[in-house]
Design a protein that fits this description.
With 121 residues, this protein is α+β, with helices and mostly antiparallel strands. It has helices spanning 2-18, 60-63, 72-89, 106-116, and strands spanning 29-34, 39-45, 50-56, 95-97. A 4-stranded mixed beta sheet has the order 3-2-1-4, covered by helices on one side.
């Protein structure tokens, strides 16, 4: 029961922030999802409804480098990987959608790594 309350509260926070954030072709949305074991990131163009780039701790490129996907080091490597993929597609600036999570810990380290790799928020 407690997990369901937490999930619904995060969902409400996500809806509140999603009213303001919208990904366009010029500035797509960088969405984060985290579970207990993994972290996922996608760059989405909401106008076309298309995912332009994606990366996670379960991706084949990162799976060998990461021993455990639920820590800050794994989030940093996912952040650099998503920034490189976005730059390859031609995206330099994104809107950051933290998906209802607090900007803290893994979310913050992923965002900082993406910024250091050249992605502008």
């Amino acid at each position: 029961m407690q997990k369901e309350k937490i999930r619904k509260a995060r969902q409400r926070r996500n809806w509140r922030s999603r009213r303001k954030i919208f990904g366009t072709p010029d500035r797509p949305r960088l969405v984060i999802f985290r579970s207990g074991r993994h972290i996922y990131a996608q760059v989405i163009d909401d106008l076309a409804g298309v995912t332009l780039a994606s990366s996670s701790t379960r991706a084949k490129l990162l799976r060998g480098d990461i021993s455990y996907g639920g820590n800050k080091d794994a989030a940093k490597s996912v952040g650099t990987a998503i920034a490189k993929q976005a730059m390859d597609v031609g995206i330099k600036a994104v809107c950051f959608d933290r998906n209802g999570y607090r900007y803290h810990g893994r979310i913050k380290s992923l965002a900082d790594a993406a910024r250091q790799a050249g992605l502008a928020f």
